[in-house]
Amino acid sequence: MNELDFRWALMALCLLILLASFAALLWASWRHHRRGQLAQDNFHSSLLIEMAWTIAPCIIVLLLVWPIVRIFWLP
Predict the structure, then answer these.
(1) Residues 55-75: pLDDT tens digits?
(2) pLDDT tens digit string along 37-53?
(3) Which residues contact 1 (CB under 8 A, 6 or more apart)?
């Protein structure tokens, strides 16, 4: 395995971990929301806030990774 193949494998692994954690967080927030035991004064009852907490770290990770991807893999 040469260096370029290693980099692609590492990038694929990082993306797999990102997608798996995103899916787990999304599933957990949806499951919590669908239970129906929601308190009106609790911010956890807002599906929008819980989805934002899931999506925001994904966007941050992608923004941090993009410059590295440009340097190593894009001409």
Answers:
(1) 988 888 888 888 888 888 776
(2) 555 555 566 788 788 88
(3) 9
Phi first, then psi: give them for residue 46, nearest 5 degrees: -95, 110
Domain extents for the chain? 47-75
What is the Cα–Cα distance from 8 to 5, expressed in whole angstroms? 5
Q: What is the DSSP string of 5-18?
A: HHHHHHHHHHHHHH
Report the C-alpha gap between 44 and 49 in whole angstroms.
7
In this prediction the pTM is 0.47
